[in-house]
Design goal:
By secondary structure, the protein is of the alpha/beta class. The protein has 13 helices and 8 strands. The protein binds 2-acetamido-2-deoxy-beta-D-glucopyranose (2 copies).
């Protein structure tokens, strides 16, 4: 009798511990805003953060602030060297105790390629799912619209026209660092200090591939009516065929994929790349679309 009671008590404790583990805290989420935006704008990243918190009970969501104020964060989206931003964020993630068991990452617009750089260069703490919402993974060739301050936008355009690959501009202007000129692929390869590096254009860094293959899922969202990103196929790793700016190739035809220099082929072959499309302009998805396609599938 006594032994039986002990046993059932043991089972009760066991069941209690097991259920506590099963309900353990959900995987935290790190988000990185796009150009002209900031960590904490209540109408953009602020509302995304609240939405995720509402849908995933008790989740910790960190919206990255690049700099020490909202103004600085917004300006840094134009004028802070991207490689320095990656280093800064890498340190922030490493020193956040809530992220140490791993996190899911959601990058909006240019935040998409920046978080990919984090996955490649900064494997600890581990990134589990990488969700790129309108990121420009093969860069851009054009800046037809630009959100935020129109004076800054004009200035950015002038600098890009003056010479995106000028060292002084490369080292400072964010949009120059993912400028991809299909008429000058050689110059892009040699002089792009950010995109050409993470896309293995100059040398192949095996560590980048190893780290990419640690991802559980790579989710790429493309906006079918995008009027901001040229070409919008960049959101799915496509781009202009070299030497002109009309004909496009898809990720599957790119050497980056066929030679598996970044692990994209392996990721696809193991069913870990998801291509999503939103039939709207840049970042203009609905709340329902976001909940059904992102939150319910990759954050729960
Ligand atoms: C490859 O990338 C890793 C991670 O960023 C870096 O530490 C290493 O220096 C790079 N190797 C080369 C040869 O650039
Ligand atoms: C990529 O993966 C999908 C789904 O697993 C598969 O149907 C498709 O054939 C793959 N693409 C290529 C080019 O291998």
């Amino acid at each position: 009798m006594a032994a039986e009671m002990k046993l059932s008590l043991l089972f009760a404790i066991f069941a209690f511990v097991a259920s506590a583990n099963a309900q353990g805290s959900p995987v935290p989420v790190v988000i990185w805003h796009g150009m002209g935006d900031s960590c904490c704008n209540p109408l953009s990243m602020g509302s995304i953060k609240r939405l995720i918190e509402k849908e995933v009970k008790k989740v910790y969501v960190r919206s990255l602030e690049i700099g020490s104020s909202i103004e600085e964060d917004t300006l840094n989206g134009f004028f802070m060297n991207v490689n320095d931003q990656i280093d800064m964020v890498c340190k922030k993630l490493a020193s956040d105790p809530k992220l140490q068991s791993g996190y899911n990452a959601i990058g909006f617009s240019q935040g998409g390629q920046f978080l990919r750089a984090i996955a490649q260069r900064c494997p600890s703490p581990p990134m589990l799912n990488l969700i790129s919402v309108g990121g420009q993974h093969q860069g851009v060739f054009g800046l037809p619209h630009c959100t935020g301050n129109s004076y800054i936008c004009e200035w950015v355009r002038k600098l890009l026209n003056y010479g995106a690959y000028e060292p002084e501009i490369q080292s400072r202007l964010v949009q120059a660092e993912y400028w991809h000129d299909p008429l000058n692929e050689d110059e892009y390869r040699k002089k792009s200090i950010f995109l050409a590096d993470i896309n293995q254009e100059v040398t192949v860094n095996q560590t980048y591939k190893t780290n990419m293959l640690k991802l559980k899922n790579l989710v790429l969202v493309k906006f079918l009516q995008d009027t901001m990103v040229e070409p919008r196929e960049s959101e799915w790793f496509g781009f202009y065929t070299p030497g002109q700016d009309k004909k496009l190739y898809t990720m599957f035809d790119s050497p980056l994929y066929t030679e598996d220099k970044l692990g994209l082929k392996t990721l696809n072959d193991t069913g870990r790349i998801t291509f999503l499309a939103s039939d709207s302009d840049h970042l203009q998805f609905t709340e329902t679309w976001f909940i059904n396609n992102i939150v319910n599938k990759f954050l729960k």
